[in-house]
Amino acid sequence: MLTQTDLVASIGAYEKEIQEALRIAKTLTLPEPITLSFRLSNLTVTEIERLAAALPSGHRKEDKDAEYIYVFTLADSSADLLEEMLSAFDEAREFQDTDEYDGKKNLCKPNAISEATRAIYVGRSYRPRDRLKQHLSESSSGTYAIHFAMWASELKVDVKFSLYRFAGLGNRVIQVLEDGLWDNLQPLLGKRGEK
Predict the structure, then answer these.
(1) Torsion of CA 110, 111, 117, 118, to 10 degrees
(2) Residue 30, exposed/middle/buried by CB under 10 A (0-12, 13-18, 19+)?
(3) Same domain, 56 and 136
(4) Residue 143 belongs to what domain range?
């Protein structure tokens, strides 16, 4: 059974770990991103493969201790485009709740649009090529993602994808970066929080 002393000690240890992660995060310089641009209405299987091929697989020897943070943004952000996207996304989520849909519910969480919303999605991955394919492709698997091809093929919206590589930092530091970006960019889709 836990005691009050255990609780206090646990919180203190966690606080120390987070403070160290924050200290390291504050010293970092943002690396140059790999940037891809695409139109949602053009997401064919061939186009998705072409885009994904431009990203590291994450399987290379030099990627052993690397993690990637990525951000999807609108090329030309506007409240109207965000509303249009959220409406189409909500329709797809509602369809996944019907008897007509026989796959697994796999669309990520929608968020309320605010004046601070400056991104579509903020995420992290050890395998960015595979993760990009999940976000762009239509799928009925159980992997939560944006799955643009499932609901956005009618939208003539240009999207920018930026990928940042970080190595040797550890989970806590990467989590501080991801959560800080999430809080700052207030993405339209996805959830904040530790994996």
Answers:
(1) -30
(2) exposed
(3) yes
(4) 31-185
Question: Residue 121: which of 95, 156, 160, 166 has the closest Cα?
Answer: 160
Q: Are residues 148 and 113 in the same domain?
A: yes
Q: How far apart are the first and last CA of the chain?
A: 27
**Whose CA is closest to 73, among 150, 135, 162?**
162
Number of domains in the chain: 2
Contacts of 133 (CB under 8 A, 6+ apart): 48, 49, 52
Q: What tens digit of pLDDT does each residue of 11-66 get?
A: 999 999 999 999 999 999 999 999 999 999 999 999 999 999 999 999 998 888 99
- Does residue 25 fall inside a structural domain? yes
**Residue listed under structure tokens 């091809």:** 149
Q: What angle do CA 47, 51, 56 make, to 5 degrees?
A: 150
pTM assigned to the model: 0.92
Whether residue 98 sits in one domain with residue 10 = no
